[in-house]
Amino acid sequence: MNVVASPDVEPFVRDHGGRLFVWTDARRCCGGGMTYLLTSAVPKKDRSFARIDTVGFELWFDAGRSPPPQELHLEIKGRRRAHVAAYWDGCVFVT
Q1: How far apart are CA 48 and CA 59, in angstroms?
Q2: C-beta separation of 39 from 47 below 8 A
Q3: CB burial class (10 A; 0-12, 13-18, 19+) of residue 58?
Q4: Angle CA 57–75–21, to nearest 5
Q5: Nearest to 5 by CA among 65, 94, 84
Q6: Which of 9, 27, 39, 60 is the Cys-Cys partner for 49 at CB 3.0 to 4.6 Å?
Q7: Over the chain (95 residues), what is each successive 10-residue block's mean pLDDT?
C-alpha cells in the first residue's frame, strides 16, 4: 500500500503523539453498504492494526475484511477541529 500524505499531515500527527491509526467503518443503508475510513491518535479497541512504513510518524492500518487499498491518501481537514482525513484510493468511501 502506497501512502500519499499532504505536507501538513506529518507535523500534525507528530504534534498529536506521533502515531496515526486508520480503520474501516462499514455501514449499511437502504442504498446498500458503504465503508468509510476513520482516524485517531489512539487505537480503536477490538481492531487488529498492522504497521505501515511511513516517514516522520507511525501509521497503523486495519482494512477490516477488505484487501488494503493500493493508495491511502491522508490530509488535514477542519478549521475549528482539525483532524486527519483518510481516503481509500482517493475516495471518501468504498462500496
Answers
A1: 13
A2: no
A3: middle
A4: 45
A5: 84
A6: 60
A7: 97 98 85 85 96 96 92 96 94 75
